[in-house]
Structure formats: structure tokens, C-alpha cells
From TrEMBL:
This is DUF393 domain-containing protein. It comes from Streptosporangium pseudovulgare. It comes from the Bacteria.
Amino acid sequence: MTEQPVLVYDGDCGFCTSCVRFAERRIGLRARAVPLQTADLAALGATRERAEHEVLWAEDGRLYGGAQAVARLLISAGPPWGAAGSLMRLPLLRQVAGWGYRLVSANRGRLPGGTPACSVPEVHR
């Protein structure tokens, strides 16, 4: 049996934390959610810079970021969420999902639950 997947998110961001709590309550998160501030990023094959830039999903020695991390989260939850996650992996929808993820990420400080601490540094946009 493989280890449980790990979801790495920005624990200082109210919006990100709210999204993780939503995934736990409503989607059925089947991963260990760890704030980037306490995660062993090196063990996951990630850098702090990448973890500050996007949510990460680590599973079976592979690392997914951004929209593809969200897709993996949805797939792991099973029906009905898994279908949406699978669609997000298709070539055209993968691009659309990536664009949508970047739009949300760049504006997470303005979204419900967001605070000034949620802002992504300009260098990452």
C-alpha cells in the first residue's frame, strides 16, 4: 500500500485555508493537508518557492502543482468529484483549468476569506 497523498497549501492564507476546510467537509479530502510553513518540502520533492506559488499534491513520488493538484484532489475523492478532476486533465480543459487557477491565485487576497497575507508576490504572477 502506498502512503497517503499530501496536500500542501499556504497556511497563512485565509482563502487557501478555507478552501482546504471546504475540501475536507464537502469533497471528502483523501490526503493529509499540511501548511507549507510546516511541511517537509524536501521530502516531497518540492521547493519553498514553488509551494508559495501554488498548491501542491504529492502522491507516489510524483508532485503536481496548481490546477493539476486540484484535479488530483478531485480524482482521489471519487464520484461525483472525480469526473471533474478527470476532465481537468484533458489537453484543452487542462489549459483552461490552469488559466482559471492562476486567475484565482493572483486574486486570492480579494476573495472571500482572503486577507493581505494571501497576496502572491508579484514575481510569481
